[in-house]
Write a structure and sequence with these properties.
Chain lengths: ~100, ~100, ~100, ~100, ~100, ~100, ~100
């Protein structure tokens, strides 16, 4: 899926996966954790932040990565009827397979 | 449209797009999101911030870019009867097509 | 107008323009904006801040510039019967023509 | 145990050890301390944070290390029926044997 | 007037001028400003702050300068019956003639 | 006494000395000070923090040092029946003899 | 007077002078100032803070200096029956003669 939203800086666009149980990697998210992470797929990444010399330092996360992020991170955008999230890479906890 | 407002530093002038549904890129903004972004067109950009050597690091956003930004960002200015916003580049979430 | 107030660092002296409608550039400031900017003319600028090597990085704003700034910025000083403001360059939103 | 969660930056995945008394090293955690640490085993570590040149600075903690951490650190994830924690290395107080 | 108080770092000793109207430069301070500056004469300055190499960066303000500062800045010291103020250079708004 | 707790970064393990009066150096801690320091012996030190090049900058405090620290610093750990504290070097006020 | 308290980093040990009027330099501290400084004699100084290269930058204040400091600074320690204070150099306002 190619989208026409190009995030700025260290932001990325994530499509959240709503289903509670997925089997890839066997990860099941807890019901009652104090801070529930949520799964998603990365659709677009920004160019990264610039260092002191003004060069971009590319993000660790790439398009297509499956990620865990804190549940209420980011800003919601609707795109072709789908709910997407624009968040910063620092909101991403981990990549999953 | 050429305007006579020249933002300072990493600020830019954005003309917000008020209509709820636009078709360019098919992006429709949600009604009830906790933090609604808003679309706009960039009319003018500042020279960027200076690094430690005093050189300007130009902004990622250019004049004419269509952008998403958090709804209550920036400072309102009226210009030729239009409501414009002066905000910082860090208030811009993404560029859209 | 030459004044005998020499601001320090990245501060500048601004003479605010009180009239609501000016025609230069056609900019009219809104009545009910949440954060009303105000227009003014720069009368004096400081030498700028020093970088890590101790060199001054001159300000973007020059004497004579017309500027927009957030309405309640700075410190009020009376000079020859006029109300002037001493503020930091970071309080300036944009230059106008 | 190989897991399919790859933490980002300076984060790591820790499997907490719930039992109150362990004998390895003879460390017994107090009942009534104002800030109770908890023991755990490190299952996966991120690549570290990048310095100003953009190079990764690897973490001090390695996979397999037994660690003490403040009890309510991190984000809970369920994996193969186990409760795991994703936390930052700065939440780790010490390594134990 | 030579005094035996040697301020540290970027601090300076200022003798405040209490009279409301002075004529040097014609500056009269407002009665009802939200943040009233006050005039004073600099009696002693510190060596400045050190940069990352450990060298002192001397202050912009010199002994004998007349300065404007925010009214409730600094720490009061009595010296030979006079009330002096020890403040940081960043509390100084401008030099006046 | 060799312990099997290896603190991370600029943290150290301190065994607090509970007795009110000790004679080494003649230091007696006050009864009613607003911020009572406490004495202790350093049992283990971390490798220090890394500078921007990623090199460790070793701590000023060494194993065996007697130290003063603010009374409620750090995290309590029980070890072989003793109450130990894991704290950061910045919590240490001074070394004593 | 040699003492066996060796402060860490940019801390120093000060013996406060309690008497209200001293004649050295003729400085008399005010009764009703909003922030009363207090006089003292420096008994010991730390090695200073380390810069980014890990080198110590020695303090401006030396053993034996008479100093002014904000009255409620630092941590109280009793030593040979005297009340001493351990504070940071940044709590020192000025040296006096």
């Amino acid at each position: 899926m190619t989208i026409s939203i190009k995030p700025l800086g260290n932001r990325l666009v994530v499509e959240p996966i709503e289903e509670e149980e997925i089997t890839a990697g066997g990860i099941v998210l807890p019901e009652t954790a104090k801070e529930k992470p949520q799964k998603g797929i990365v659709l677009a990444v920004g160019p990264g932040e610039r260092n002191d010399e003004g060069e971009y330092m590319p993000l660790e996360v790439k398009e297509g990565d499956r990620v865990l992020f804190a549940k209420y991170s980011g800003t919601e955008v609707k795109y072709d009827g789908k709910k997407l999230l624009i968040m910063r890479e620092s909101d991403i906890l981990a990549k999953i397979n």
